[in-house]
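Try this one yourself first.
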């Protein structure tokens, strides 16, 4: 396979981008409706083919050998990836074993694999300015609305077309930096997580029944622990006739991508303000909006701020069966984390009030953690190690750890379930004895 000249790809991408932008301008002047994303991609393919044909004619005129058909196809794919995809990042995203990509400037690339290896990668751009351009293209074409990335907007979070999560910054570090966390398991089920050791069979059965019993569940864990993957798996236990509304900062869950599992889904994405500071739609506003759209369940991708109060109110006012994720270092820490977020919200809820709200809204907290390779004999492992049932409130949230990890690493039933009869009514058959 011939090596692609990235300078040539950059030149072709610039030409194609200029022609597409000109077509957009002409459509606007002539009152033609803007092209859909898919129409624009198809138009781009035609433009790229035209540019490559012009290049071949130029080469022949100059007495040089033009690109052969296979190489021309490589260039067409590279230019299209540069316009709508992720350019030189594409091979990494195409590798199913790549789990994380961290980039600290165009030539400092670190790739994490699913088996725990960390490898230094090839540069993804020739300059930091080109890396910023690449991120700007991604911001323009990913998500529901264009997201700027420049000195006025130095932070960017978005979901790539393959479901991976990208976070980028500039002007707050010496060089532009980005991290990509791969969505290696798109359509994932509880059985998959039992198969790879994330869940024990008993715990998987318990969680499936808890979802079917419409229990409100918060999934807690550190960064990159596997919270979103577990949330997807739990959501796939929801019957297909239910109407789901998901609320996220950047589209990531992708439940609406699988109509065979969830035919009735509305996916909300937070909208950032424009350059004048106008037009922002916050997570809290979206959660409130979701309650007016006849949801069977509301799923909040990640709680990071003042949306917590709105979400807990939703959970306690009849929207049973809601799911969410939150950052925490243990299952017991979740309640204090929620109180901290509630204090920062517009409502300024005092700790006692937020603890009462939690007790009336949350049924279970599921804690998932990532085990480093040295803890698991050389392989990376994510495990659910604790489940807490909320039992009430007495100044603080009262909870019992119904599943806990033993000293030898097994996760077993630990305390009696207060809602056992309800779960049994939805198919739960406890196979262990409570410790």
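Now uncover the answer:
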């Amino acid at each position: 396979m011939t090596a692609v000249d990235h300078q040539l790809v950059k030149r072709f991408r610039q030409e194609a981008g200029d022609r597409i932008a000109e077509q957009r301008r002409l459509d606007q002047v002539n009152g033609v409706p803007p092209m859909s994303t898919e129409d624009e991609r198809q138009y781009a393919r035609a433009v790229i083919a035209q540019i490559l044909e012009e290049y071949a004619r130029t080469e022949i005129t100059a007495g040089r050998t033009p690109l052969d058909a296979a190489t021309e196809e490589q260039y067409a794919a590279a230019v299209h990836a540069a316009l709508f995809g992720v350019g030189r990042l594409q091979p990494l995203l195409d590798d199913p074993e790549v789990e994380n990509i961290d980039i600290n400037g165009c030539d400092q690339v670190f790739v994490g694999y699913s088996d725990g290896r960390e490898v230094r990668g090839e540069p993804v751009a020739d300059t930091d300015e080109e890396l910023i351009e690449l991120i700007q293209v991604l911001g323009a074409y990913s998500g529901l609305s264009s997201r700027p990335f420049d000195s006025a907007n130095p932070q960017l979070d978005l979901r790539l077309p393959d479901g991976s999560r990208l976070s980028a910054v500039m002007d707050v570090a010496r060089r532009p930096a980005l991290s990509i966390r791969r969505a290696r398991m798109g359509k994932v089920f509880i059985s998959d997580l039992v198969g790879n050791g994330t869940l024990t069979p008993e715990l998987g059965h318990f969680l499936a029944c808890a979802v079917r019993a419409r229990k409100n569940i918060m999934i807690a864990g550190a960064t990159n622990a596997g919270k979103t993957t577990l949330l997807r798996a739990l959501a796939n236990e929801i019957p297909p006739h239910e109407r789901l509304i998901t609320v996220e900062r950047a589209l990531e869950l992708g439940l609406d991508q699988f109509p065979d599992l969830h035919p009735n889904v509305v996916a909300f994405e937070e909208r950032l303000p424009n350059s004048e500071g106008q037009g922002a739609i916050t997570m809290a506003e979206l959660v409130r909006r979701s309650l007016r759209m006849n949801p069977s369940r509301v799923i909040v991708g990640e709680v990071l701020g003042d949306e917590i109060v709105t979400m807990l109110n939703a959970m306690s006012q009849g929207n049973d069966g809601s799911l969410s994720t939150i950052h925490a270092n243990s299952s017991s820490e979740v309640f204090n984390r929620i109180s901290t977020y509630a204090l920062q919200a517009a409502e300024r809820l005092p700790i006692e009030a937020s603890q009462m709200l939690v007790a009336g809204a949350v049924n279970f907290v599921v804690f998932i953690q990532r085990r480093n390779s040295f803890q698991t004999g050389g392989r990376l492992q994510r495990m659910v190690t604790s489940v807490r049932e909320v039992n009430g409130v007495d100044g603080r949230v009262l909870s019992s750890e119904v599943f806990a990890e033993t000293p030898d690493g097994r996760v077993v039933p630990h305390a009696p379930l207060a809602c056992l009869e309800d779960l049994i009514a939805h198919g739960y058959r406890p196979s262990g004895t409570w410790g």
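Discussion: The first strand starts at residue 98 and ends at 104. Residues 321 and 335 are 19 Å apart (CA to CA).
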